[in-house]
Amino acid sequence: MVTRITSGVFIICGNKVLLMKRGLHKELAPGLWAGVGGHLDITDIKNPRAIDLADTCLREIYEETGLTKADIHILKLKYIVIRKVGDEIRMHHHHFAEIKTQIPPPICEEGEFFWIEKEEMLGLPMSTSLKESLKHWASNPVSDTIFTVVVNAADTSATVVEV
User: Fold this and answer.
1) CATH no. for residue 122?
2) In angstroms, rounded to a whole number, what is the distance separating the alpha carbons of residues 89 and 82?
3) How far, in Å, CA of 150 to CA of 102, rounded?
4) What is the extent of the structural domain holding 52?
5) So what's the pLDDT on residue 12?
6) 11, 22, 31, 91: which could join 18 in a potential S-S bond, CB 3.0 to 4.6 Å?
């Protein structure tokens, strides 16, 4: 059994969220909608007892959008998603970031970016864990609580619980 740790972020500007339609060449969630994100790299692990996933988020934000830490107004971890896929335990951390000025949709090899109205995002095809996280966030946008999302084995439903 192996563990895959990923970190992602939803960049918000006003009433819009920067989302990516993932490329069909991607191993995980090809063709589905997602935020900015990627795998935890070995360089992100400075102290295994105190991994700072915000560093991973900031690295991914910069790699995929060109935004720097100075451009980010707020960055908060909101959801930790846990699910088993085959012989893998996947742990994904959903962060939410706010920026003050909307940037043009970045060009990225991972997929194609679009600014999506918050009320339209849940109608897009995306993974169960992402949809449940965003649905919960849309109902609790100012909560400072971190939630856990547990996805069933069939990837058809998820439960959101307070940590």
Assistant:
1) 3.90.79.10
2) 7
3) 32
4) 2-162
5) 96
6) 11
The amino acid present at 35, given as its one-letter code, is G
Place of tokens 């295994």: 48
CB 117 within 8 Å of CB 15: yes
Tokens coding 93: 């951390």
Distance, in Å, from the CA atom of 62 to the CA atom of 94, rounded to the nearest integer, reads 16
If one counts the domains in the chain, the total is 1
Residue 92 has φ and ψ, to the nearest 5°, of: -120, 135
Q: Rounded to an integer, what distance in angstroms lies between the CA atom of residue 121 and that of residue 135? A: 9
Token duo for residue 78: 């909101």
Q: 52-63 pLDDT, tens per residue? A: 778 888 888 999
Length of the chain: 163
